[in-house]
Amino acid sequence: MTWLVTGGAGYIGAHVVRALLDEGLEPVVIDDLSSGHRGFVPEGVPFVTASILDGGAVEAAIRDHSVTGVIHLAGFKYAGVSVQRPLHTYQQNVTGMATLLAAMADTGVEQIVFSSSAAVFGAVDVDLVTEDVAKNPTSPYGESKLIGEWLLRDQAVATGLRHTSLRYFNVVGSGSSEVYDTSPHNLFPLVFDALLEGRAPRINGTDYPTPDGTCVRDYIHVADLAAAHVAAARRLEAGQPLEPAYNLGSGDGVSVRQIMDAVARVTGIGFEPELSERRPGDPPRIVASGELAARDLDWAMRHSLDDMVRSAWDARRASTP
């Protein structure tokens, strides 16, 4: 079986490619390199430099490499920036999904794993987010991911498409020294940038109704996330039943202060974080349940917080000249 990985040169996508290879499956990558890196893709993996908005290129990639399934990770993922760039976000994430699905239909590919987002839920007021919690996205990014799930649902009704969507919050760590998070908006890169530049990392808000006053979030290791994508692909291959969507959650979460403490502990760099005001719209706690994914996708938190920090720090330092 050959799986087309859209966005396979990105931080998460490149880990999915490696997980497929580890399972003896054959990945093909399509990526426009707008945020991905060609060097993240292992040598020998077929690589197509193109946008998923180019339906002809997607069709050609599917036909040329006898693709039998798609793992869809390509997209514009910055929730905050999406508020300033809604049209770009919808073009990349909604038109991109529609174009991909059209190419799949035209080439007879009938199975897809969609890398969705917990942003579909928006600001929640429950202790544990389950799959059936109301969807009220608060950004164009979250809306575009929810529309992507709707497109899969509707295409399944129309054509029998077999699909599942994986939702998650904060992805950290590294499963390979060759791949690291290069996002300018994610917590770990921001903290590491500050430390490498001799600055103190910042905590935004210390007066939340949480045990230590800082926000609590789900942080999951990228290798665990990649394994879940491959498990979903395997079940689709085998014709086994899958839920329309799964939350890949930790069930308990960690606070920003706990992240900072772990970074200091693992790196050996003593620092006192700069304390700042709350950011507008940041909820005190968002943690998801992973029970359904544990049942069907062998989902588990296989890495400790220190594992997450250490692997991310080692990969980041390996990339620094």
TrEMBL record:
It catalyses: UDP-alpha-D-glucose = UDP-alpha-D-galactose. One of its GO terms (molecular function) is UDP-glucose 4-epimerase activity. Its cofactor is NAD(+). InterPro entries: Epimerase_deHydtase, NAD(P)-bd_dom_sf, UDP_G4E. Its EC number is 5.1.3.2. Pathway: Carbohydrate metabolism; galactose metabolism. This is UDP-glucose 4-epimerase. It comes from Microcella daejeonensis. The lineage of its organism: Bacteria, Bacillati, Actinomycetota, Actinomycetes, Micrococcales.
